[in-house]
């Protein structure tokens, strides 16, 4: 049984947004740091820009997409590279949006070539919201200091809408005037011209996605006290608090502290993860260890993550002896009462996916004899995960 007491690193989603806005005003600062690989590659690219013509953004979808939009603001030819798996994920929305602004975008086998004269004035842009909110967020964050009024019409439904709302909140928090009008079929976003972020100091929120993995580990076999909790976080993954209440999992929040300790039994759940898909792999393990069935819904974007998370999660749970079913509208996990736990050692390849490695780590913490290939992939978001839960993967 492990014990953790301390603070967690800043949210990589939060810091990546802050880094883009800081590009437009170096007087924007914040307290809180993140050593996540996704943050470091974006920080490096921004530091080198525009002195180089080629930039490598690794595996980070947010980092890659945000930087493509920022680079396109400047006249020139830019080549943005990414790892193979990243480029297999949907990226064509970058081309669709930027071509409306007069930017030429060509995808290659190892990256994207951007030929830009800067964003050209346009009365209105449009896009579908069901692709990924990361594209919309990347576009909005780079819509500072334009010499024309910016208007974007996002057609519903909007995938991961809460992450888009997080971006809008962030822009407003840094002094950018943003107009938002919602209709039954669309979301209309306006950013008046000639605005830049204010010189101000912000406090970065801790990374709730990473915190959830640590908290889940504490529930299984530990005691976790997080001392920089944010009760009013804007991060969508705070949804796990509601899920825990449904599962009858006990936790305590007092002031800026979150506390949870090992518990023996909890219930299954029936939840929609459309707004918080990053919870899926770790939550699925908790559901497998629960009493009774669970239905995880809203998993449409999972196959476009660092791995096909639905298939990889199903593989992981099946290897460990749990009964699962992939239904048309949900992923059904039958829970430990119907499980046939595996006691012979088995191997699992997280397919370069940090969250799959963490999910596998939870099973190891629950005494499943699992060998995890490439456990170091957790550095993408939570480099200290293994040491924080006292595990040698």
Compact description:
By secondary structure, the chain is an alpha/beta fold. The protein has 13 helices and 20 strands.
Structure write-up:
By secondary structure, the chain is α/β, with parallel strands linked by helices. It has three domains: 36-120, Enolpyruvate transferase domain (UDP-n-acetylglucosamine1-carboxyvinyl-transferase, Chain), CATH 3.65.10; 121-191, Translation Initiation Factor IF3 (2-Layer Sandwich), CATH 3.30.110; 208-388, Alpha-beta prism (UDP-n-acetylglucosamine1-carboxyvinyl-transferase, Chain), CATH 3.65.10. Helices cover 33% and strands 21% of the residues. It has 13 helices and 20 strands. The strands form six sheets. The protein has a four-stranded mixed beta sheet with strand order 1-12-14-13. Strands 3-4-6-5 form a four-stranded mixed beta sheet, covered by helices on one side. A hairpin with a 2-residue loop joins strand 13 and strand 14. Helix 3 runs parallel beside helix 6, helix 8 runs parallel beside helix 12 (354-365) and helix 10 packs parallel to helix 12 (354-365). It is globular and about 60 Å long. The mean pLDDT is 94.
- Low-confidence residue ranges: none
The shape, in one word, is globular
Strand elements, count: 20
Give a quick account of the main beta sheet: strands, pairing sense, barrel closure: 4 strands, mixed
Do you know the CATH topology of the largest domain? UDP-n-acetylglucosamine1-carboxyvinyl-transferase, Chain
What percent of residues adopt helix (DSSP H or I)? 25-40%
Strand content: 15-25%
Head-to-tail CA distance between termini:
15 Å
Summed up, the helix count is: 13
Indicate the mean pLDDT: 94
Regarding CATH, which class of the largest domain? Alpha Beta
The structure class reads alpha/beta
Task: Tell me the quaternary state.
Answer: single chain
Specify the CATH architecture of the largest domain. Answer: Alpha-beta prism
Number of separate structural domains: 3
- Kindly provide the radius of gyration, computed on alpha-carbon positions and rounded to a whole number of angstroms: 21 Å
At the fourth CATH level, what is the homologous superfamily of the largest domain? Enolpyruvate transferase domain
The largest sheet has its strands arranged as: 1-12-14-13
């Amino acid at each position: 049984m492990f014990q953790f007491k301390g603070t967690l690193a800043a949210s990589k989603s939060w810091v990546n947004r802050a880094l883009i806005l800081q590009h437009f005003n170096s007087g924007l600062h914040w307290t809180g740091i993140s050593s996540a690989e996704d943050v470091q590659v974006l920080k490096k690219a921004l530091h080198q820009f525009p002195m180089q013509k080629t930039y490598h953004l690794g595996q980070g979808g947010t980092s890659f997409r945000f930087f493509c939009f920022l680079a396109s603001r400047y006249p020139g030819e830019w080549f943005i590279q990414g790892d193979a798996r990243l480029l297999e994920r949907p990226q064509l929305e970058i081309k669709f949006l930027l071509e409306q602004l007069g930017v030429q975008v060509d995808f290659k086998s190892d990256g994207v070539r951007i030929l830009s004269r800067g964003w050209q004035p346009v009365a209105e842009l449009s896009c579908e919201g069901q692709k990924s909110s990361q594209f919309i967020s990347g576009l909005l964050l780079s819509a500072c200091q334009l010499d024309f009024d910016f208007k974007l019409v996002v057609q519903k439904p909007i995938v991961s809408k809460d992450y888009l709302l997080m971006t809008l909140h962030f822009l407003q928090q840094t002094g950018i005037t943003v107009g938002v009008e919602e209709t039954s079929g669309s979301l209309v976003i306006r950013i008046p011209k000639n605005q830049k972020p204010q010189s101000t100091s912000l406090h970065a929120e801790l990374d709730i996605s990473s915190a959830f993995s640590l908290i889940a580990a504490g529930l299984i076999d530990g005691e976790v006290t997080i001392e920089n909790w944010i009760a009013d976080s804007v991060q969508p993954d705070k949804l796990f608090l509601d899920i825990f209440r449904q599962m009858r999992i006990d936790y305590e929040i007092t002031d800026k502290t979150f506390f949870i300790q090992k518990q023996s039994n909890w219930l299954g759940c029936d939840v929609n993860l459309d707004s918080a898909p990053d919870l899926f792999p770790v939550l699925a393990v908790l559901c497998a260890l629960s009493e009774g069935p669970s239905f995880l819904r809203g998993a449409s974007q999972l196959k476009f993550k660092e791995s096909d998370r639905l298939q990889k999660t199903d593989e992981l749970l099946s290897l460990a002896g749990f009964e699962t079913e992939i239904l048309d509208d949900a992923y059904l996990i039958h829970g430990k009462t119907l499980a046939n736990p595996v006691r012979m050692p088995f191997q699992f390849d997280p397919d370069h996916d940090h969250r799959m490695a963490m999910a596998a780590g939870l099973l190891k913490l629950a005494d499943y004899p699992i060998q995890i290939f490439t456990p170091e992939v957790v550095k993408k978001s939570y480099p200290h995960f293994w040491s924080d839960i006292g595990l040698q993967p």
